[in-house]
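User: Here's a structure from my thesis project, written as structure tokens. My advisor, Dr. K., wants to see whether a designed sequence matches the one we expressed. Can you design one independently, without my sequence as a hint?
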């Protein structure tokens, strides 16, 4: 009879256990490089490596470079954004990018299917960088997994579970770096916690090297340099407080804070490059991360602005909504247009309710809405438009 090895497997190695399913995980941080590392030179090295193997925009490459460095020092921050790698179709380089990241990030763990229980247990034990591929095949169906991933971008993120025969309640941390690759957008709550990178299929004129996993010694050296850099600058990372641009607010400011902090620390123009990348990526993501209710608020504001009225009938709003192109309102439910009742249901989330109002000289009252009912919701959920107007006012002579 074969007796399995006793004790915990040494870190950095995989031990196979006879007669058991699967294999144990041995994750370890790369051995720090022997010499001092210049942060800007390290960032340039990571940047060049990414561009060598994957077709990426300038903004995407800058963001991913800083995120790779963040995986080595994320515990110095209170938030670590998810790196969302999305594409409109297959064969756009998502898996290749994850393969490259597996060689560059700290303690990588690549998986194409996982459960909520496996995620919080491995994070509690190892603090890995999770690299999740083909998430579109399972993530929307698993509410528990989404909850764990949602909580894991904050240092305080935890889940509570009962453990053992005594059902003792224990806390498991969910805080660690995560990259999620899939076709189409992530669920709203995950995308809201992400820096979103959009990949496109490689055009014929675009050339990149084929990634061969057996020939990655140079990437291993880069990872060791990243480990050395993070060790040398722990104190500086703890004390950093980057100036956030006005176009970043709320969640987007949280997501970009650690990336801008790293960029400012390494210097040599990376701070400006990071802010330009943040502006480009957040602008692209605004429409993608907006929920349907937020989209509805924006469309109703456009209708009020066009009509230049202080009140509108429910029916009038609905009629205008269904005429908007590239919106879901004309086929809202089972292929049928949205109704005044369905409109009312969606707006209740913002404490906006229809009223019985008089319109013009019509003696018969009807259900409708006052513009003033929406002002507070617009201010809270459509801040980008106000920021844009403010920027325009600043550049006027």
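Assistant: Designed independently from the structure alone:
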């Amino acid at each position: 009879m074969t007796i399995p090895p006793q004790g915990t497997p040494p870190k950095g190695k995989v031990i196979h256990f006879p007669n058991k399913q699967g294999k144990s995980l041995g994750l370890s941080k790369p051995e720090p490089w022997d010499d001092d590392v210049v942060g800007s030179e390290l960032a340039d090295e990571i940047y060049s490596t990414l561009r060598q193997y994957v077709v990426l925009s300038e903004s995407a490459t800058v963001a991913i470079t800083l995120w790779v460095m963040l995986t080595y020092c994320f515990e110095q921050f209170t938030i670590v954004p998810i790196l969302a790698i999305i594409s409109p179709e297959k064969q756009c380089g998502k898996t290749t990018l994850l393969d490259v990241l597996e060689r560059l990030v700290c303690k990588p763990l690549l998986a194409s299917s996982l459960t909520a229980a496996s995620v919080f247990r491995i994070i509690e034990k190892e603090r890995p960088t999770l690299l999740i591929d083909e998430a579109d095949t399972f993530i929307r169906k698993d509410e528990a997994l989404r909850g764990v991933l949602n909580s894991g971008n904050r240092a305080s993120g935890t889940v509570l579970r009962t453990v053992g025969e005594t059902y003792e309640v224990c806390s498991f941390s969910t805080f660690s770096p995560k990259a999620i690759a899939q076709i189409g957008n992530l669920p709203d709550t995950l995308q809201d916690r992400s820096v979103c990178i959009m990949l496109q299929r490689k055009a014929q004129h675009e050339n990149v090297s084929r990634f061969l996993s057996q020939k990655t010694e140079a990437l291993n050296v880069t990872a060791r340099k990243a480990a050395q850099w993070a060790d040398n600058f722990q104190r500086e990372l703890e004390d950093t407080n980057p100036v956030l641009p006005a176009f970043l607010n709320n969640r987007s400011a949280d997501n970009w804070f650690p990336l801008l902090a790293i960029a400012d620390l390494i210097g040599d123009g990376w701070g400006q490059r990071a802010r330009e990348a943040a502006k480009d990526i957040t602008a692209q993501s605004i429409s993608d991360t907006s929920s349907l209710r937020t989209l509805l608020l924006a469309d109703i504001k456009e209708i009020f602005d066009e009509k230049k009225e202080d009140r509108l009938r429910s029916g009038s709003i609905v009629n205008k909504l269904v005429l908007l192109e590239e919106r879901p309102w004309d086929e809202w439910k089972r292929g049928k247009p949205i109704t005044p009742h369905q409109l009312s249901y969606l707006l209740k989330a913002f404490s906006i309710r229809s009223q019985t109002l008089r319109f013009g000289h019509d003696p018969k009252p009807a259900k409708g809405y006052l513009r003033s009912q929406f002002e507070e919701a617009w201010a809270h959920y459509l801040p980008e438009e106000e920021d844009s107007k403010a920027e325009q006012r600043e550049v006027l002579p």
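When you compare it with your expressed construct, this may help: The first strand starts at residue 82 and ends at 87.
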